[in-house]
Structure formats: C-alpha cells, structure tokens
Design brief:
This protein is α+β, with helices and mostly antiparallel strands and 383 residues long. It is built from 11 helices and 12 strands.
C-alpha cells in the first residue's frame, strides 16, 4: 500500500469518529482460563489471515502479574511485544480526561452540573445548556468535530498537520446540538475535547499539566504522555494496517494534535495496568464521586467491549458471563485497546492489539476479539 493510500485511510479513520457501536454477541464455547489455553487462543487470533501482527495482555490479580503475548511488536525485527512498549491508547484516553474532571469535581473546583455556557462562554450559545455530566457520559448532543468536512479536508491534505487542539470544536461551531442534552446516548469525540477545555478554564492550567499532577503522579505512570506530533517514543508496539496484505506500518502516519484529549495519549501496557486499577477502583476521588460516575445509561464503548456494555461517566460497565469489570476501549489507525478492572481495582486486564478492529471495517473479527476478551476477563475473575 502506498503512503498516499495510508494517509487517505488515516483521514477516513478519524473522520469516522468512533461512533457508538451496537454490542456483538460474544459467545465462547468453553471457558478456558488456564495460561496455556489463553496463550493458544491469542496465538490463533494473531495468526489468522486478518489478524493483527502482535497482541499483548497483562492480567494482574492479588497473586501477581501474568503476561500473555503473541506475534511481534515489530515485523521488521521480529521482536516480541513487551509490557514496557509504548503504544497509542486511542479512546482509552477519554478515561484520562474523565479522571482529571472527576478529580476536580472531588476537589470542588468543578461540578457535574456545570454547563458549557458557564465555563466556556466562547462556545456557541446553542450548546450552552450542556453539562459536564452529559459530556462525560456521551449524552451531550455535541456534533462530532472529526466528522466535519473541514477537519477531514485538513487531515487528508496533510496527516501530519498540526491542529490547534484547543480550537478543534471550531470545526462544528456553526452546528446545533444533535438532540436535547441528556435525551440520547451518542459517542462523540467532541465531548472529551470540551471536558479538557472545562478543566483548563476552571483551573487556568494546561490540560497536559493537569494530567501530570492529577493522574500520572498519583498513579505512578512514568511512561505516559500526551504528544502533539506523530513520532512514537522507543521502544514501541508498531501499529499496522493489515487490509489488504501485506501489513503496512502506520504507527507514525497521523499526528496527535487532531485528537488531543479525545485519543492522543501514548502509554504502555504496564502503565495502563496501573491506571485502570486506580481509575476503576476509585482511588483518585471520594466515594460520592465514584457513585456518580457509576450511574449507568445504555451505551457501548468504541469498539464495544466484552459482554453487555453500559456507560457511566468516562467509564463503561462490561457485564460478562463471569462477572462485571469496569473500563474503556479504543481504536485508532494501527491499534485497538481494552483496559478493564474489577470495581475494587484489585484485578485488571490490559488487552492491546496492533491493528485497528471496528464494527464497520471488520465485524467478524471484532466478534472474535470480544469473545477472546471475555475469556480473558473470565480468567481474571476466576484466578
């Protein structure tokens, strides 16, 4: 595949905007949860003709950490995936913006009922009634900037284009809300851009600094960052476009300024394990905020996670055949992610693959992946 084709594909990926998906049925014949069984299943998934070149899962329980990996981190060198490899975490970055906002709510710097009109009066009057709560659970009705013709045109012309991350909502500022706030669920990249802007307005502090102070430091995330450019820090899991074959490395095809708080973070499986244990376990803020976060509405993450999905405030509930975990998913060019943990944060799963898997592009592959993820969740809960 030519670089030009990769760039056009990159543009279409962001333009597709991570819209909400309907959960697929994630059935699994047995309930294989032993290390060898999980290893075999992950290898089978990777070695399919449409499979990702690499995959790594980190399961952590009270008994310790188990790493299951298959394929390679880099097709050129054949190096295997490692928990300290960097990767694009895609929309699991939305959980980070949630962590920042909810910590500020806990500190009484923000309120869940604060509106865009109060905190960001420069935004369109038509959006003024949207609350922080509605942004966090994707019931705001904000139009998605990444679907806008202007954004798509800029990205198509230059996938490395440097966007002003704090002006991304300008692309849809002439549009009304898609529905009455709070009346529907619709996943939108615009929501988490607005969340980050509200946090900045309330604190007069750059979002990147808020991440470092409120999330990275307390959870000891040493390899996590929010870059503006397209370069990946070494070592990293190389992301690939596998359709059509042969796989093409697309790790650095697009810049991150155009996704920012909606999906631009780079991290590692090790750091994401620490993050989801703290985040899902409610360690960043008090019980009252945790209770608000876990008021569920009908809605799936993107792509849908294992089992039955429902949406909270920047977190999703995955009801599997073996029990409940809380977390987030994400996908972007070259990467698909799942992070999940038990509600007490004591057991966690980080599941990363090095190709993009979505309902629109690969529905059968997504079904298989969700079934595999559910097997990993069952292994986590039964260990």
């Amino acid at each position: 595949m030519s670089l030009r084709r990769s760039r056009l594909r990159a543009a279409s990926v962001l333009a597709a905007c991570l819209a909400a998906l309907s959960p697929a049925t994630a059935g699994a014949a047995a309930d294989p949860s032993g290390h060898k069984a999980l290893q075999r299943q992950l290898e089978d998934f990777v070695h399919r003709p449409d499979g990702p070149p690499g995959a790594i899962a980190v399961l952590r329980t009270e008994k310790g950490t188990r790493v299951v990996r298959a394929g390679v981190a880099d097709l050129r060198t054949g190096r295997p995936p490692h928990p300290d490899d960097h990767m694009r975490i895609a929309s699991t970055a939305k959980a980070f913006s949630g962590a920042v906002a909810l910590t500020l709510v806990d500190h009484r710097v923000l309120r869940l009922d604060d509106t865009l009109g109060q905190r960001l009066p420069q935004l369109p009057d038509a959006w003024a009634s949207v609350t922080l709560r509605q942004l966090l659970n994707h019931t705001s009705g904000l139009p998605d900037y990444s679907r806008s013709p202007g954004f798509v045109a800029a990205l198509s012309a230059d996938p490395h284009h440097h966007f002003d991350s704090r002006r991304l909502l300008d692309y849809v500022a002439d549009q009304p809300l898609l529905f009455e706030p709070g009346s529907q669920y619709r996943y939108s990249n615009s929501d988490n851009i607005a969340v980050a802007l509200m946090a900045e307005a309330a604190t007069r502090t750059p979002y990147e600094d808020l991440l470092r102070k409120l999330v990275y430091a307390p959870l000891r995330l040493r390899s996590t960052s929010l870059p503006q450019g397209y370069r990946m820090p070494e070592p990293y899991l190389h992301g690939y476009d596998v359709s059509p074959p042969p796989p093409e490395d697309v790790s650095e095809v697009i810049g991150m300024s155009g996704v920012w708080a909606s999906g631009g973070i780079v991290s590692t499986p090790a750091d994401m394990t620490r993050f989801i244990r703290g985040y899902a376990g409610g360690r960043l803020y008090g019980r009252n905020v945790v209770e608000q976060q876990r008021q569920w509405v009908e809605g799936a993450s993107e792509p849908a996670g294992p089992g039955r999905n429902s949406a909270g405030l920047a977190i999703f509930r995955y009801q599997t055949r073996c029990g409940v975990v809380l977390g987030h998913t994400g996908n972007t060019l070259g990467y698909t992610q799942l992070i999940a943990a038990t509600p007490d944060g004591r057991r966690s799963l980080t599941f990363s693959v090095t190709s993009q898997i979505t309902q629109s592009s690969a529905p059968e592959q997504l079904r298989r992946m969700r079934a595999l993820q559910e097997n990993f969740v069952c292994a986590l809960l039964r260990d």
